[in-house]
Amino acid sequence: MKKNLAIIGYGGQGAWHATWAGKSDVVALAGIYDIAEKRVKAAKENGIHTYASREELLADKNVDIVLCATPNDVHKEIVIAALNAKKHVICEKPVALSVEDFDDMVAAAKKNGVFFTVHQNRRWDVDYLAIKSLIESGEIGETINIESRVHGSRGIPSDWRCHKPYGGGMILDWGVHLIDQMLKLIPEKITKVYCETTNITTDEVDDGFNLHLTFESGKRATVEVGTYNFISMPRFYMQAKSGSALIEDWQKKCRVAKLKAWNEKEVLPVQTAAGITKTMAPRDEITIDSYEIERPTSDVHDFYRNYTAAIDGKCEQLIKNCEVRRVLLVMEAAFKSAETGNAVIMDI
To answer: Which end of the chain is more exposed for a tag (fewer CB within 10 A), N or C?
Structure first.
């Protein structure tokens, strides 16, 4: 039996959830509430039931799950109100603007005996899943370094995302996704965080950042977001002890170069503009196997399938609150590092 879902906030992401709920095999859309009349009008035009107030939505006994898809600064207030109304709650990312606020949300969920999770939907991105499957296969050995980048050239959207009081900026927008992915790819303690931010198109919030993570074993990761890059760097690049992997962009397959033999009898030097080099001579088929990995299959409906099954006690939540909290800790450290210009030493 499907669970009834009501959405607070019918902007871009709220409308996305409403569309997918209409196609879901585990949830049904009960309706939406939005403070903006034009968004309410849009929902009605799409045949969606609308609530006159947040209180009316939360009082509806037929609503099982409330999804919060509002600007970041009001997540805490809305989430705790829904939890106190004994509703299961999904919150869009970033769930909170501080670890302290998130802890208050988790405490409210425990007090009311309901399920609370965050929509970290980019765990279902096929580029991320391709790198994850390569690591888990062990095909090219233990990871040394992973670089994850998202580049665009249109700046920050000219809505609440470019204003600090609303929780704008790229660390909170894209960073929360890419950090979450990285902590799943390298499941180790983080010992050091260093971050630099950019303010090319606005001085109010970060419009880009470059984040470096060091892990307990010495593995390293780079997470970078840019909104003023007219030529994008690769989406993923990974070094491992027996090869390298590259994904150029969202739509491309994962390219792999797997080491067969370290040495070869004779390395042909490469002629450069100012001399020759053997050190940087390219590999060939004698020592390297080169191939592509097919793009994995992914189904965004699996988020709701998992969450509703967890509510029914059939499985664990895929997106655990302890994982969400760890991402928030990294983001707080990133802001601190960018502000002070120093690395932040951690043990999380």
So the answer is: N
Q: Is residue 221 classed exposed, middle or buried when 0-12, 13-18 and 19+ CB atoms within 10 A define those classes?
A: buried
72, amino acid identity? N
Provide the CATH topology of domain 123-298+329-345. Dihydrodipicolinate Reductase; domain 2 (3.30.360)
Hey, what CATH topology would domain 3-119 get? Rossmann fold (3.40.50)
The alpha-carbon radius of gyration of the chain (Å, integer) is 23
Structure confidence at residue 263 (pLDDT): 79
Q: From 41, 44, 68, 73, select the one nearest 54 (Cα to Cα).
A: 68
pLDDT value for 19: 95
From the list 12, 13, 11, the residue with the least C-alpha distance to 34 is 11
Task: Tell me the per-residue pLDDT of 212-256, one tens digit each, with 9 for 90 and over.
Answer: 999 999 999 999 999 999 999 999 999 999 999 999 999 999 999
Q: What values do phi and psi take at 160, rounded to 5?
A: -60, -20
* Span 82-123, pLDDT tens digits: 999 999 999 999 999 999 999 999 999 999 999 999 999 999
Residues 211, 175 contacting (CB under 8 angstroms):
yes
Tell me whether domains 3-119 and 123-298+329-345 share a fold.
no
pLDDT value for 150: 98
Question: Residues 141-195: pLDDT tens digits?
Answer: 999 999 999 999 999 877 888 899 899 999 999 999 999 999 999 999 999 999 9
Let me know: does 237 contact 182? Beta carbons within 8 Å.
no
C-alpha to C-alpha distances, 190 to 133, 164, 301, 343, 345, nearest whole angstrom: 22, 27, 31, 12, 9
> Which residues touch 67 (CB under 8 Å, ≥6 apart)?
5, 6, 7, 8, 14, 17, 89, 90, 91, 92, 119
* Amino acid, res. 300: V
